Amino acid sequence: MSEIMSNLTHHFLIAMPSMADPNFSRTLTYIAEHNDQGALGIIVNRPIDMTLATLFERVELPLDAAGFADQPVYFGGPVQTDRGFVLHRPAGEWHSTLNVNDEAGLTSSRDILQAIGSTGQPADVLVTLGYAGWTAGQLEQEIADNAWLTVRADLSIVFDLPPEERLAAAMQKLGIDFTNLSETAGHA
C-alpha cells in the first residue's frame, strides 16, 4: 500500500467510534499535508485547559489585539506537544509556514503569534500544542482498516463553530449522524 490512494491534503479525518487510540478517540483532524512521505495534521476539536492569553504569557509575548485572549489552545496531536502550531486563514507570509492551499496555512514560527498579538491578523486562527503525523503508507493503512472516515475540509467548521459541534458538522458533510455509526468495523 505504498502508493497514495488519493491526496488527503485539506481533508478532515473523522475518527471512527472503534478508534482505540485515546489520542484520537472522537476527534476531527485537519490534514495540512499528505504526500508519499506521509501525512501531517492537527486535531481541531479538542481544546485543552489553556487560553491564548496564558500561552502568550508563557512565551513572553504581548496580546494586545482584542478578541483572542479567551480563545482556547487545542491538543493538536501526540507529536511535539511542547511546540505550537497555528492553523490560519488566510495563508499569509510567515517564517515557517506550510501553505495548505490558497486559503489556509499551518505555521509554527513565533512571528505569527507576534502579529496576532499586535495586529489581530490573521483573524481566523486555531492554535494547537502538538500535531498528528503518519509515516509513508500509515494513514492509508489506517483508512483501509476502517479507523477513519474522510471528507473534504470546510474551514468554516473549524473557524465558525464551537469545538463540540465540529465533529458532527463534518459528519453531516457525509450525510451521516455520528450516533448511528457502529463501533464494530466491517468489510464489504
UniProtKB/TrEMBL annotation:
Domain of life, source organism: Bacteria
Q: Which InterPro entries match?
A: AlgH-like
Matches recorded under SUPFAM superfamilies? VC0467-like (SSF143456)
Q: Name one Pfam family in it.
A: DUF179
Q: Which family does it belong to?
A: Belongs to the UPF0301 (AlgH) family.
Q: Do you know which HAMAP family this protein is assigned to? A: UPF0301
Task: Give the NCBIfam families listed for this entry.
Answer: PRK00228.1-1
This protein's name: UPF0301 protein U5817_21540
